[in-house]
Write a structure and sequence with these properties.
This protein has four helices and seven strands. By secondary structure, the protein is α+β, with helices and mostly antiparallel strands. The longest helix is centred in the middle third of the chain and has 15 residues, at 92-106.
C-alpha cells in the first residue's frame, strides 16, 4: 500500500539515515553514472528539498519514489523524479508533481522548470499532461546523441492539471 500522506519534504537527512541510504541506492540504480547525484550533498545546498513517497511493506515503510528540487525565488528547479521499478505506472510521479505544484503555488512560485532526455517518452508524456511546455532543446545535453529538453510549467495559470 502506498502512503500518499507520507509525501513530505525532507530537509534534515540526518534524522532519516536509513531512508537516505535507500534513496542513494535507488539513485545509483536508476540513473546513469554521470547523472546520478549524491543526494546528501544536494540537500546541504540552500533551498534544496527532497519529497518522498513511502510504501507499507510487511509492517515496514520502504521507499517507493522521491523527487529532488531547489527553490530559487519565483522559480523552482526540478532536479530528479524517481519512482522505483516495483511502483511504476501507479501515478506516483504525477501525485508527487501535483503535490509540489500546489505547494509552490501557495508559496507564490511562478515557474517549475526541468530538463528531460528527449528520448524518455514516458517522462515527457507525464510532463506534457501536466502542462509543461518545451522552451529549449539542447543537442548532446546528456551525452553524445542524447538531447535534452528544457520544460517549464507556468504556475500562475489556472490550468487544473
Amino acid at each position: 500500500m502506498i502512503l500518499l500522506d507520507d509525501m513530505k519534504p525532507i530537509r534534515n537527512y540526518t534524522q532519516n539515515l536509513d531512508l537516505m541510504d535507500q534513496i542513494q541506492k535507488a539513485e545509483r540504480k536508476t540513473f546513469p553514472k554521470g547523472e546520478s547525484l549524491d543526494i546528501k550533498q544536494e540537500l546541504r545546498k540552500a533551498n534544496t528539498e527532497l519529497m518522498v513517497v513511502l510504501a507499507n511493506t510487511d509492517h515496514e515503510k520502504s521507499l517507493a519514489a522521491y523527487m529532488l528540487y531547489a527553490r530559487l525565488h519565483k522559480i523552482t528547479l526540478l532536479h530528479k523524479v524517481c519512482v522505483l521499478e516495483d511502483y511504476r505506472r501507479q501515478g506516483l510521479a504525477r501525485n508527487l508533481l501535483l503535490r509540489l505544484k500546489g505547494r509552490l503555488q501557495r508559496q507564490g512560485c511562478e515557474k517549475l522548470q526541468l530538463w528531460v532526455d528527449e528520448a524518455r517518452q514516458p517522462a515527457r508524456g507525464l510532463y506534457d499532461s501536466l502542462g509543461f511546455e518545451v522552451v529549449t532543446r539542447a543537442e548532446d545535453y546528456y551525452s553524445p546523441g542524447r538531447n535534452g529538453l528544457q520544460m517549464v510549467l507556468d504556475l500562475t495559470s489556472t490550468n487544473p492539471n
